[in-house]
Amino acid sequence: MMQEAGPEAPSNGTTNQNGVVAGAEGGARDVRAKSATPSSDITAADLVNFQQQQVNISLVSFLIDLFATLLNHFTQQPLEMPVSVAMMTPQVITPQQMQQILQQQVLSPQQLQLLLQQQQALMLQQQQLQDFYKKQQEQLHLQLFQQHGSKQQSKEVSAQQLVFQQQLLQVQQLQQQHLLSLQRQGLLSIQPNQNLPLHSLTQGMIPAELQQLWKEVTGAPVKEENSASNNGHRGLDLTSASPAPPKNPLLNQHPTTNGQYSSHTLKRESSALDDHSHHSHPLYGHGVCKWPGCEAVFEDFQSFLKHLNNEHALDDRSTAQCRVQMQVVQQLELQLAKDKERLQAMMTHLHVKSTEPKPTPQPLNLVSKSVPEASPPLSLPQTPTTPTAPLTPLSQAHSVITPTSLHTVGPIRRRYSDKYNMPISPDIVQNKEFYMNADVRPPFTYASLIRQAILESPEKQLTLNEIYNWFTRMFAYFRRNAATWKNAVRHNLSLHKCFVRVENVKGAVWTVDELEFQKRRPQKISGSPALVKNIQTNLGYGPALSAAFQASMAENNIPLYTTASIGSPTLNSLANAIREEMNGAMDHGNSNGSDSSPGRSPLPAMHHISVKEEPLDPEEHEGPLSLVTTANHSPDFDHHRDYEDDHGNEDML
DNA sequence: GATTTTTTAAACAGAC
DNA sequence: CGTCTGTTTAAAAAAT
């Protein structure tokens, strides 16, 4: 609604963009926390197994990432991959599109309501699983971390390859699962001229291609995954088995029953993939009715049809099952999206780790220069990008299904506000990718966002212009209507006491008075005791230190931290501890106060907010992962970034 | 339903 | 003079 006046073009060229890593944010946001979706009729035991495997993967992944990073850092020779990242981003149905498809076909508002209720129940179960999973993860992390000093370079590389390969396979599996789920429901019919079929979904992700790709990437023959671990092998089995119809978790909660059930179902489903090509009906395969929870055997297709019409007619039970199936699909979709994201982060990490700030190919012409409003690609019917749906902590995770969600693109706002003391950081980090690409208003207040921007900066201080840049960099939404939100940003900076302006030779920077920020609203910590404890812990560290952790977690590519910060407050603390340890281990020198941006550091004396002389600023020097490392020593790189930022802004405004 | 917070809009002043 | 930065007021919207 705001006039996007030209005068908005900021003169960012003048101000040096501090080295905050925009891109490479390989951030490999965590997928694992939401791992094994309670899909289908896999038994509880199976789920646990699967989760354990994922734990293994993530552990290895973490270690690999860590060491590879170190390796890269010291050798300055990032692994090269002769593969374009773009290749690896097949266009799959976005969650939004999925919702549309599903909703348009079957659901009435009442049904949606029912569905929501069921989801809640389901989510309870999920939560239990996740709790279990987290505990295990925590344990293993601890264990592994104790032996982290003894790895050898060669091992790391090969292990990295392994993990990477597994990631590829995982994504592929998810895609197949997803598709098969759709087919199973009959909600998605496979037709040659439709663009949803399997070969389209897996386009660029065909196993053979993956293998080939992997060979190219590694320059070595592909190791059989089962030789190193059973993850890959198991994963493949899961793939084929995954379409097994889900036991309705609401109707049947006896794991033993499920176990018996699934054990032979899995076998039968194993070749479901190529099966429905014979019979047109996706619910019939291998002589078995594939309706979820059914599995009646039939001699011929006709009797199956008869059965289908009789037993699975449009009644309450069937619709309920259908809803559950939708839920499964949703989960898979989410999982898939996250894993894709993770994969891409990995690829980016391996490919352009320390040179390319933009991980996601963001076409510069996406938002064209002079016509911010005129370009209609952003209009409602189809989202221009294919962002993953924002992953939200449990409570809202499935708001995606609400009827309103289809229309929420613009006006509807639901702020997270600052209920909790560490309000948005985990969420914002988790959904980084999403907000970077989706023209969706982030559900955070300006104050929260500004704070986040500042805390993410290496020195917990930003100029106004740098804050602007952070907004535009991190949120597609803020690439438009600059006059409006910039005004709001300035307004917020002035309005809230928690933002402190610090004079500097070169001007002024803004810092966050953490205590004030906490004060802003009566602290109603309604969350778990763990959360409270965590907050206390953080406060104990002092604002500066806590901020440092926040920022480093946000900026670094190490999945564990992101995982932990999202996964559970307890783990967050753990991550902090680990982080601290690592900082100590990695670089000692703590070379006095040599800034990454010598020119504009405010006078230390003026800091009544203790953001300055903290002993262990991770970015201080040789920050383990971020681009800042390079930026510190390479004027060219600085220039490069300046240019990029200018460029970006020109494009946006 | 009242109160508080947040957002949006806009006027204005000072520095550059 | 125009732009950027920063402060302030006002009103509407949203959240509590």
TrEMBL record:
Pfam families assigned: Forkhead, FOXP-CC
Annotated region of DNA binding: 441-514
Extent of Basic and acidic residues compositional bias: 266-277, 635-653
Stretches of the chain forming a coiled coil according to its record: none
SMART domains the UniProt entry points to: FH
Keyword Repressor: yes
Principal location: nucleus
InterPro entries (UniProt xref): FH_FOXP1_P2, Fork_head_dom, FOXP, FOXP-CC, TF_fork_head_CS_2, WH-like_DNA-bd_sf, WH_DNA-bd_sf
Biased composition (Polar residues): 250-264, 589-599
Gene3D superfamilies in the cross-refs: 1.20.5.340, Winged helix-like DNA-binding domain superfamily/Winged helix DNA-binding domain
Keyword Iron-sulfur listed: no
Cell location: Nucleus
Region (Disordered): 1-22, 223-279, 354-389, 584-653
Compositional bias segments (type: Low complexity): 380-389
Entries under PANTHER family matching the protein: FORKHEAD BOX P, ISOFORM C, FORKHEAD BOX PROTEIN P1
Name assigned to this protein: Fork-head domain-containing protein
Annotated organism of origin: Pygocentrus nattereri (Red-bellied piranha)
